[in-house]
Amino acid sequence: MSRIYIIKNALDQQEKITVESENILYTFLQEKTKHPQAKIYKGNPCPENDITPTRDNRASIARLMEMDDECTIVRYPGELSSTVTWIATKLLGQAVSALVKVPKAPTNNSSMTGSSNNNLSNPENRQRIKQRVPYILGAPKAIPDLFAPPYRYFKDGVEVEELLLSVCENPVKLSQFKTGDTPIQEIPGTSLSAYGLNQSLVGTETIFKWGDTFTEPPVIARQCDSINGQTALPPNSTRVEAGDIYFQYPNMIKANDQGTADRFNSFNINEALIISGANFGVGDLSITDQVTVDPVNKTFAIESTQNVLDYQNYRKINVTSLLVTDPENGQLDLAGLYDIDSITYVSNTYTIHLRNPVATNTNFSKVTEVLTSTISANLTANTANIFLDGEYVVTGVDTVNKQLTLATPSGVNSDWNKLADLEDQKTSTGNIKLRGSQDNWIGWFTIASPKATGLLLNFQALNGIYQGSDAKFVDIFVEYQQVVSDNPTGPVFNQTIRLNGKANNRDSVGGSMWINLPFSGAVRFRARRVNDNGDAVDLSDEVKFYTAYAIRYLSKLVYDNRVIIRQRTQATRAATAVDTRQTNCIAESLVYSFRGGVRSAELIPSRNMADLIIDLALNKLIGRRTLNEINTEEIYRVFDDVVEYFGSSKMAEFNYTLDNANQSFEEICRMMAGASGCNERRLNRALYFDFERADRQPILLFNHRNKKAKSEVRTYNFKVENNYDGVEITYVDSEAGWIEKTLKIPNNQITNPKKIDGYGIAYREQAHIIGWRAWNKLKYQRVNCKFDCFAEGELTERGDPIIIVDDTRLSPIALGDGSITSGEITAWNGLTIEISQPCTLTAGHDYVIHLQKKSGFTDQIPVSQGASEYELILARPPLEALVTEGEVKTVYSITVDDRQDDELFLVSTKNRNGVFENSISATNSDERYYRNDKDIINNLI
């Protein structure tokens, strides 16, 4: 099925309709009848893509019949359809008919086996030109990229495809190779070798191997898109076959039916025409018996008890089946229409003396001794007949008078003179074939590949090459020539290939022509079929020009930054039955472990985030860190805490392929953090992670002393953001065949979920925890706070817990009149502190003071009233010394003990506003965010 765009107005390409068609040519002819100036283009309309067929160029018609590409028909303005244009279209249609091969009637030959549907479909691995080479993290399903275009050829008649694939740039362990969902071990005829970094693409050193060893360098092929399965027409193809044709003296071929006469236009003046089947009078005599072939005497000696009347009057023998096995040249097919010099009969043996048999079939010259076989033939052209078969020259085409005129046909065949003695000087009608005689070239075609050193041309007979129960063959002749600056240069070289069919077998037959060019660079070529097996109803010998490539052999065989795969697949029944032809495997990254602060001696397979993060950080092109800039001990401790807290090592795994060229190291770390419930952190170039959980201590305290005046804005929400009713997280489930899945939380009935991409998540448990955290945060986020702050803001990052004193309204806690809940510490003596703002603690309540520590955390201490409203007594000494001197002092906030978490927030975003000035957005912290964190331990998943 092809998609065809029909542009109604050539001046406005927006005015178009789209149709789906099984026959591009038929659709075009329908448009051509209504719009005589219409043209058809392959793809987008432009002069280079014009494929409009013409009556005189039958190759253009044949190509259009066999195409299945996307095309565009443009209705150019011109005259309205008239009788003249209708006739022109009709003539084009007749030219088309001359090239359509009429389907043969099926025979009841039960010995036929096999199927024509044995072609390999196109591989689904893609080429990613100018894209980032994948980098494997963990053990994801890897779909290798095409490192070079795939190419195909035929070996021993079987189609073979070879692929050169690139997996990644980092060391990996490869396993579980499949084509689609089928393990390669279950596909006979498949060979696959994977080569690690610095391993040669030729030889036995591999990281994975199945099947045969690759001993030759890979072929780099550039395909010629113009070759799309064109049929190699025989030189004498039938153009007209009808039962109403008769012959009239002295030189005319005539028809009774106008439809037959219209097809006479398939012939041109001065073109050769071959008449077949013009035998009037005594009928042909069929003979099938044992035969002795004598190459020296040029005879067929047929042993037969059949009584042949007036055998000496037959002038031709049409051998439909004769296979002999020569001791030097093997099996030879001697079928053909031979001229007879004479026939003798002695003791039930008819000895037929042939006239120049090599001119009929060149295989006769390859017979080296007397051979015996079985012949199936017809004796024809009886002298008592009028036998008009032969090759003539057309001198006139007159469809109005329904006739073709030939140039002195009696000079070719004297039987034409016999027509003068017939009534009305004409024969009766008969089933006659009129065949063309020409070289049906496919091409020229040019492949401008600057480094090409060879050509690979593939030809295929999808339905086999046979006639009845006998094998046939097809010879293809190819010419090729160098092209320099778009101009053909130098001599024209040639090469021939023969496709041999199999007796009693209609399996596909293919052949490949490997040509070593005597030059390098651009080349043009063309091909034609040089033999004709006739038009018998049980003949199948249609051969197509399957594919063509300009090729060269890869010179670089060792890569230090690529893991390369070579794959060879034969078109076995198992291979052609695979629905999805996508090579894939499991690739597990190989990294050094730094657990304990010491690098492991060998690379080890690992999915642990700590190992992967350190590996990326040390990569010279990704993290670009040194080991001194990485706190390996702290990174391992954080992810060990993750495993212990959630109760599963899966929560510390990351399985992902980096393939985006614009993805930074920081973004990759953020993805890993998001898959494990952590937040990534960076101080200068030092890298670390913070595990987000309910029991974390706030790291900073913000009050009116370190917030910009009047910058704080608080928003209170009483419904879920955007009316979300749940969360839908998408991930790739490694335990279900690496298929993409979606997990809906809290249930499958949600209709307006917030959608989350679970990058690197490969387990349902992992998706469950991350998804529930996201949903709980949506449900219980009630307060959003945004404010501008000063130098302290540099110490916060997304996800950090902080204390924010509400400076937008009066304090809700029980304090005396004129009290202020936050400020700075102005003096400190033992357990007594002096504060910058007056505060009177009301009796009957327990109070807590939050102190900002120098280390970047806060200290919560019970507090009571001192000797004045500026003095408070601490219940215990602070964990760190308080700062009471200088520009920046210790800041504090006072809350009632049972509401001390009201001022606890999580940083959402931080944006720099200027030098030492930042804008921070935060949401309220709530222990209920983490209420599902223990679902793995509690077996709730």
Question: How would you sum up this structure, described in words?
Answer:
There is one protein chain. The protein is mainly β. It has seven domains: 98 residues; 110 residues, no CATH class; 93 residues, Elongation Factor Tu (Ef-tu), domain 3 (Beta Barrel); 100 residues, Elongation Factor Tu (Ef-tu), domain 3 (Beta Barrel), CATH 2.40.30; 114 residues, Immunoglobulin-like (Sandwich), CATH 2.60.40; 100 residues, no CATH class; 181 residues, no CATH class. The chain is built from ten helices and 61 strands. The strands form 15 sheets. A six-stranded antiparallel barrel has the order 15-16-29-28-17-30. It has a six-stranded antiparallel β-barrel with strand order 19-20-25-24-21-26. Strand 35 and strand 36 form a beta hairpin. It is elongated, with a radius of gyration of 43 Å. The protein starts with a strand and ends in a 17-residue tail after the last strand.
Give the helix/strand layout.
Blueprint: E1 2-9, E2 12-21, H1 24-34, E3 39-42, H2 58-66, E4 71-74, H3 83-99, E5 135-137, E6 141-142, E7 145-155, E8 158-168, E9 172-179, E10 182-183, E11 190-195, E12 208-210, E13 219-223, E14 230-231, E15 238-248, E16 252-255, H4 258-262, E17 272-276, E18 279-280, E19 285-294, E20 299-303, E21 314-321, E22 323-326, E23 330-333, E24 336-346, E25 349-355, H5 357-360, E26 371-382, E27 386-387, E28 390-398, E29 403-406, E30 430-436, E31 442-447, E32 454-461, E33 466-467, E34 470-471, E35 473-484, E36 487-500, E37 509-516, E38 523-529, E39 539-540, E40 544-553, E41 563-570, H6 573-576, E42 583-591, E43 604-605, H7 609-618, H8 632-646, E44 656-658, H9 665-674, E45 678-683, E46 686-691, E47 700-702, E48 713-716, E49 726-733, E50 739-745, E51 753-757, H10 764-780, E52 783-789, E53 801-804, E54 822-829, E55 832-835, E56 847-852, E57 858-865, E58 871-874, E59 891-896, E60 904-914, E61 917-924
Parallel strand pairs: 1-4, 47-53, 49-51
Antiparallel strand pairs: 1-2, 3-4, 5-44, 6-42, 7-8, 8-41, 9-10, 9-42, 11-12, 11-41, 13-40, 14-40, 15-16, 15-30, 16-29, 17-28, 17-30, 18-27, 19-20, 19-26, 20-25, 21-24, 21-26, 22-23, 24-25, 28-29, 31-38, 32-37, 32-40, 33-34, 33-39, 35-36, 35-38, 42-43, 45-46, 48-52, 49-50, 52-61, 53-60, 54-55, ...
